[in-house]
Design brief:
Blueprint lengths: L7 E7 L6 H14 L4 E7 H4 L7 H18 L6 E5 L4 H11 L4 H6 L1 H10 L7 H4 L1 H11 L4 E4 L4 H18 L8 E4 L28 H9 L20 H9 L3 H13 L4 H27 L2 H30 L7
Parallel strand pairs: 1-2, 2-3, 4-5
Length: about 350
């Protein structure tokens, strides 16, 4: 595949906390591979994080470095992937402003992802305007870099749909192909449950295992995982469906035959939760120990991490600036051009 034919990838994370295993299985693992196959932009979405963190801005900005450390620790190579800070690319905010004119409040309120997030946060009708327009901001991020593919979880598919709606509407209005539609790239495991089994994994819900978790923290989390409450004795048949330990084994154990054998034994009876948890703990320890070690190396040189972010953001501004210039030219906002 030539450089010109490589797809362009845009992905990122809100900087509200360190990344966890849900992020890893949902997209981080794929991003490490994609950087060898595509032109990839990784966005640290601090501006979007501020939309529902009023008064907690310090946490948002501090976590820019934490998320960057997680990127580098899992194997993102800044020579192959462009890591940028959203708030430091003003072109994104300007493009958002133009796209906001192409969507109604009613359409934003119908977005299933936004509806779920509003309900989760208990906003009811007291919705911050910035949060309601989150899909437009995300569309600006995607289109500014002419992204053709966006790795997402299945809960983000409505955001991709809305992005493409805005792309088509803009191109139709200006009667030329300026912005590019994108395609969602789904992970085989699109959502990882929290260790409590009650919701998707989330740092804010306290049911996550972070990528920087210590060996002891991993063990405690695995031991506290929700299994089958009716599986009281080793000899009892157990239920695999809804059992968080098996959900994690499906996601992280590459030996599918071993997992299938454990499931069959668990369903028959004769396999205790402690044994299955021990298998999972060993797998997670093996996965996270090298990530944790690389993270410590980068933590010792935060100046280098900032230099990586500064360089990536500068490259991103060049690309976003070129797209914005085309958008403004299409809209006739070129008063001083010769």
């Amino acid at each position: 595949m030539t450089l010109a034919n490589r797809p362009t990838i845009l992905t990122g994370d809100r900087t509200t906390g360190p990344l966890h295993l849900g992020h890893y299985i949902g997209s981080l693992r794929a991003r490490v591979q994609l950087q060898h196959e595509a032109r990839q932009f990784l966005l640290l979405a601090d501006t979007q994080a501020l939309t529902d963190n009023v008064g907690r801005h310090q946490k948002v900005t501090e976590n820019v470095i934490e998320v960057a450390l997680d990127y580098l620790a899992v194997g993102i190579d800044p020579a192959k992937s462009t890591i940028l800070i959203q708030s430091q690319v003003p072109e994104l905010a300007e493009l958002s402003q133009y796209l906001l004119n192409l969507v109604t409040v009613a359409r934003l309120e119908r977005n299933p992802t936004i509806k779920d997030e509003i309900r989760l946060r208990g906003f009811e009708r007291d919705i911050p305007a910035g949060f309601l327009t989150y899909p437009v901001s995300q569309a600006a991020d995607i289109t500014a870099f002419q992204a053709t593919h966006v790795p997402v979880g299945d809960d983000q598919l409505p955001m991709i749909e809305q992005t493409n709606e805005l792309v088509r509407r803009f191109n139709n209005i200006v009667d030329r192909q300026v912005l590019v539609e994108c395609e969602a790239v789904l992970s085989p495991v699109t959502r990882l449950p929290g260790i409590d089994g009650k919701a998707k994994m989330s740092k804010s819900l306290g049911n996550a295992i972070t990528l920087g978790a210590t060996a002891d923290e991993i063990t405690r989390a695995v031991n506290n995982m929700y299994t089958d409450p009716k599986h009281l004795r080793v000899s009892d048949p157990g239920q695999v469906e809804g059992n968080v330990v098996f959900a994690f084994l499906d996601a992280f154990e590459p030996d599918a035959a071993q997992v299938d054998e454990l499931k069959a034994q668990y369903r028959r009876g004769g396999l205790g939760d402690s044994v299955v948890k021990r298998v999972l703990n060993e797998r997670l320890q093996s996965l996270l120990e090298p990530i944790r070690a690389r993270r410590r190396e980068y933590e010792d040189d935060r100046a280098e991490v900032l230099a990586i972010l500064r360089s990536g953001t500068a490259r991103a501004r060049e690309v976003a600036g070129a797209t914005l210039s085309e958008v403004k030219r299409a809209l006739g906002l070129t008063y001083f051009e010769a």
